[in-house]
Write a structure and sequence with these properties.
Chain lengths: ~300, ~475
């Protein structure tokens, strides 16, 4: 009997401006599986422990990508996003394995989660060229004017990805941000970052322009304040503050007020943050929060 | 060109009956405020118009409780059709008492009667009329599944369009089933207090609308009150940020309509006579006390001299003076504090090297006045190109290419409005796409309508007011987050 093959392991790095760098800080941290039953947690990988500088580099990349992505036709954005779903499907085995180990799921459950994540991505891909008609339109003003309102992306959205749902939750917060023409700096789940990096590999190979999505892994409580206070970030999604160690979402929202970022608060009541049920149909609010309405007037006349 | 003298044509103030003192309108009744009463004056004469109560923290608490009771027991349970009928009533009473409201507004604010009469008051009535019709149709407004009211809304409004801003705030809030506690600005409370009387005439259920007067501390008490579910604020970016900070970490929602430094961009193929009218309207309408004012004129270099000449000639015909005179184009500055701020920023403009010009017109001996003023040779780093002056002061910059115009127009933390003047349709549409502003006026400026969403990008705030979009701020839906 020949010995089992020694497999080739993957190095999990950051995803910034279309490339996969290590953290400039040189730091990494051990990622463990969520065990099922009485098994012990299993070492999965050393993930990059992103720093303030990595987050700032990601913002620079995201700013550089705004013009091209927001300026792309909605049809084109839909095509690119659909392509992401295709590539996710082709990397299905890896995603299932990542989710299974990260979340401690039975194989069949992990399969179902990945299916839901891919379907969620397809759902958002289809929205790109419909939103303007659903949200915008002609305003019947009392005068001889053509007056029209249409949605436009806000710009750069910092996203605190959910801590528990490492793929379906991640997709549910990233897809609406970029479907609407924004660019994203995503802070992956601290304890379960691997599906985020695998998703980044799908993005990198699906015609999503560099910088449109940037993924930073590391300590949420360390990096999130820098993004919340960053003056070139236009909006922040605080969903991932739920169950994040050392994160006070109220403090992040206060920091975000410095340049009046659009803020999507975590679900929950009062100061409690809870992770939402990702299996429900999403609705529009994750997109509309990161959209501006522009209204244009022009006189009519001969 | 011969200059004709105008005979005075003052609107009579006899139509207005100002009381010597006003209390707070809470739970459908007038109560005395527990704070220190303050005076509201006519900025055109410095005459005291009335004593106005200051709402203390306890008064605000009473108002919020009255609003909560009205919300729980009456307003949130009433059918949309019935809510709408109250709003229709209010719209009609505003129309019936339009002249009275216009004169009162001009007295308390200093704006020309032709603006309060032809813009502020008719638009306020139109806002109530428009939203009245929404009250029983919210399910059709694409707001998400099952739109429901939010609860008690705290609203804080500025002094530049007192009644109109009240209408922008109260009409959508009530249409969607919320109740309100509204604070008018401390220098312009009188039309809001008259509006309270209109609510009584309409027999609006007690506590649905509560009007509390006061200054910053009263506003802060509203914002920080735990019984308030949503804040709607129009005012400065500085205060807007402090509101955003103070509700951080709570479940209170907010819409903020804040400052601006709009670029009004004139290309060399623009219809110049119309453009000059648009420039004048853009910055001298309402003494420039307009958050979306076209305070930065960007003019293409090849026509800069021509525009400058025509603009100054036109400005010399503006009539500055008695707000109640029907011929007046530019009225009084709303307060001494605002006059001081305008004087400070214009002095900075001169000190930084821009060239100052004003019409040199005569100004009344009493009251707060500022001549229509134009700065040329302004560069982007000058304070008068960066900071909101909120007065009748235009800063002129030049550009060569459309790309340069866009870069300069967007070079500000604000993003409320912008203007484009050109005969080329494709350029209008391209420019409109590039400008980071919530409202873009092409070959027109300063147009407002209840059906048309208004609000800013970036540090000009968030949320929209008016139109279907404006309803979003006043409902909660079954949409999961």
């Amino acid at each position: 009997m020949s010995p089992a093959r020694v497999d080739v392991r993957k190095t999990y790095k950051l995803y910034i401006d279309g490339a996969f760098p290590r953290s400039e800080s040189g730091r990494s941290y051990a990622v463990w599986s969520t065990p099922v039953g009485r098994a012990n947690p299993r070492f999965l990988a050393n993930a990059a422990m992103g720093s303030r500088k990595d987050a700032r580099d990601a913002v620079v990349a995201a700013r550089g990508a705004v013009k091209g992505w927001a300026g792309a036709t909605a049809y084109n954005r839909g095509q690119v996003l659909y392509r992401v779903a295709e590539v996710m499907e082709s990397r299905r085995a890896q995603l299932v394995e990542d989710v299974r180990l990260s979340e401690g799921l039975a194989p069949s459950r992990a399969e179902a989660v990945v299916s839901a994540a891919i379907d969620r991505w397809v759902w958002y891909a289809g929205w790109t060229d419909k939103l303007a008609q659903v949200l915008g339109g002609l305003n019947p003003v009392a005068g001889p004017y053509f007056d029209i309102s249409a949605p436009e992306p806000t710009g750069i959205v910092a996203v605190l990805a959910p801590q528990r749902s490492s793929l379906l939750g991640l997709v549910s917060v990233v897809a609406p941000v970029i479907a609407t023409g924004n660019t994203a700096v995503v802070l992956a789940s601290q304890e379960r970052p691997l599906p985020a990096i695998t998703l980044a590999e799908a993005l990198a190979t699906s015609d999503v322009p560099a910088g449109v999505v940037n993924v930073v892994t590391g300590l949420t409580g360390e990096v999130a304040p820098w993004l919340a206070g960053h003056r070139d970030v236009n909006a922040i999604d605080l969903t991932g503050a739920a169950d994040a160690e050392g994160v006070d979402w109220g403090e992040l929202e206060r920091a975000a007020a410095e340049n009046l970022k659009r803020v999507l608060r975590p679900a929950g009541t009062g100061s409690d943050a809870v992770e939402p049920d990702w299996t429900a149909e999403p609705g529009l609010s994750r997109m509309t929060t990161f959209l501006e309405t522009k209204t244009v007037w022009h006189p009519k006349g001969r | 060109m011969p200059i004709f003298e105008y005979a005075p044509a003052p609107e009579s103030r006899a139509i207005v009956d100002i009381q010597p003192s006003y209390g707070l309108f809470v739970g459908g009744e007038w109560i005395e405020g527990r704070g220190a009463a303050f005076k509201t004056t006519n900025p055109a004469t410095e005459e005291v118009l009335a004593d106005v109560a200051e709402a203390s923290v306890a008064d605000v608490d009473a108002a919020v409780r009255a609003a909560r009771t009205a919300y729980t027991r009456v307003w949130s349970r009433m059918s949309g059709a019935d809510r709408g009928k109250y709003l229709f009533r209010i719209a009609r009473i505003i129309q019936e008492r339009a002249r009275e409201l216009a004169v009162l507004e001009s007295l308390d604010n200093g704006k020309p009667i032709k603006e309060s009469r032809d813009v502020d008051v008719p638009l306020a009535a139109a806002h109530f009329f428009y939203h009245a019709g929404w009250a029983d149709k919210l399910e059709y407004a694409s707001l998400g599944p099952k739109p429901r009211p939010i609860g008690v809304v705290g609203q804080v409004i500025p002094w530049n369009f007192p009644l109109l801003m009240l209408a922008w705030k109260i009409a959508p809030a009530l249409a969607c089933g919320n109740t309100v506690v509204l604070k008018p600005a401390e220098t312009t409370p009188l039309t809001a207090l008259l509006f309270a009387e209109i609510c009584q005439q309409a027999e609006l259920p007690a506590g649905v609308v509560n009007i509390v007067t006061g200054a910053g501390a009263t506003g802060q008490a509203i914002v920080e009150h735990p019984g308030v579910d949503k804040i709607a604020f129009t005012g400065s970016t500085e205060v807007g940020k402090s509101i955003a900070r103070s509700i951080a970490g709570t479940r209170k929602r907010a819409t903020l309509e804040l400052g601006g430094k709009a670029a009004n961009i004139v290309f060399d193929d623009a219809p110049l006579d119309q453009a000059v009218e648009g420039i004048v309207n853009g910055i001298f309408f309402n003494q420039g006390h307009v958050c979306c004012a076209g305070s930065r004129l960007l003019v293409q270099e090849s026509i800069a001299e021509e525009v400058d000449r025509r603009l100054k000639r036109r400005l010399e015909t503006l009539r500055v003076g008695d707000p109640l005179d029907k011929n007046t184009d530019v009225g009084a500055i709303n307060s001494r504090a605002q006059l001081d701020r305008i004087a400070e920023l214009t002095a900075a403009g001169e000190a930084e090297g821009a060239v100052r010009w004003d019409t040199g017109c005569e100004l009344p001996s009493h009251g707060f006045w500022f001549r229509p003023t134009v700065f040329t040779g302004v560069s982007q780093t000058h304070r008068i190109a960066q900071e909101e002056i909120f007065g009748p002061v235009l800063s002129v910059l030049t550009f060569r290419t459309p790309q340069e115009a866009v870069a300069k127009a967007n070079n500000t933390p604000y993003g409320l409005s912008a203007g484009i003047w050109t005969e080329k349709g494709s350029r209008i549409l391209w420019m409109a796409d590039q400008l980071r502003a919530g409202v873009v006026w092409a070959n027109t400026f300063n147009r407002f309508d209840p059906t048309s969403p208004f609000g800013g990008y970036k540090e000009s705030g968030y949320g929209r007011e008016g139109g279907r979009h404006g309803l979003e701020a006043y409902v909660t839906t079954g949409d999961p987050r």
